[in-house]
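JOB MANIFEST
job_type = single_chain_structure
chain_count = 1
residues = 292
[input]
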Amino acid sequence: MNKSTLLPMGAALVLAAFAGGSVKGLGPLLPKDVAGWKAAGPDRIYDRKTIFDYLDGGAEVYLAFDLREVFVRKFKNAAGTEIALDIYDCGSPAEAFGAFTCDRQDPDAGIGQESEYGPGLLRFRQGRYFVSITAAGDEKKAEVALRELGKAVVPHLGPAGEPPALLRALPESGLKKDRTCFFHSVINLNNRLFVASENILNLEPRTDCILAEYDADGVEPARLLLVRYPDESRARAAEQSFAKGYRPPDSGASSKTQTLARRRSNFLAIVFTAPSRDFAERLLVAVKYPQE
């Protein structure tokens, strides 16, 4: 056995006990003092039912993924500024990728598998976990603590995990990889691209969706939505529902962008905000559908 892969016996036992278990097992592994901020109050664990007690109005975004539990630890410094560490167990790396990508918009932070940092907010994914670390006040001063805490958390979240296999279906030319997101729910879709007030695409927990942005000749990015339905009949029904119910924001003779949809078996691909019909057609043709 390669000695470089060995862990000290105590650390190995703790990690083995945590692997696959409740996020409450993270408690003894994580720091309670970081860059002048100390743990304040007991750790909290929330599940799919009790998460509403913690996230008032935002729980649905995470419940739309395969959320299992959330570990929460609060920190405070001498001035009373609070930092909240939230670790979401999403059940799989693909779901953690979705939770991270559904709202990403800031520069990469170099922490975990993928990350971003904006004032007072560090977000990243590692394996089946999505992590959010926020500072409530004095965001500039808290940045060092947020980054240090994030780096301290990563080693305890296990190995890296693969993103959704559906990503491989996306055409590569012009793809803006840092603007690609994975989800299941119309809530997540409309957070990134408003399509309709009703669920005209019949999205539900068993639909896998990828929304990607593409460079479009220097104008507004074109968006490609690829949806995999559980079966062909559901994809066909969604195609018909979309054709009947979708109304582009700038619809009419003066419309400057194009929307085009194509179905193949149980997949529905739609291009929004394309600069021309030809651009939309070329993007749809380039989709690399998984083998049936």
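[summary]
The radius of gyration is 21 Å.
Residues 1-19 have pLDDT under 50 and may be disordered.
exit_status = 0
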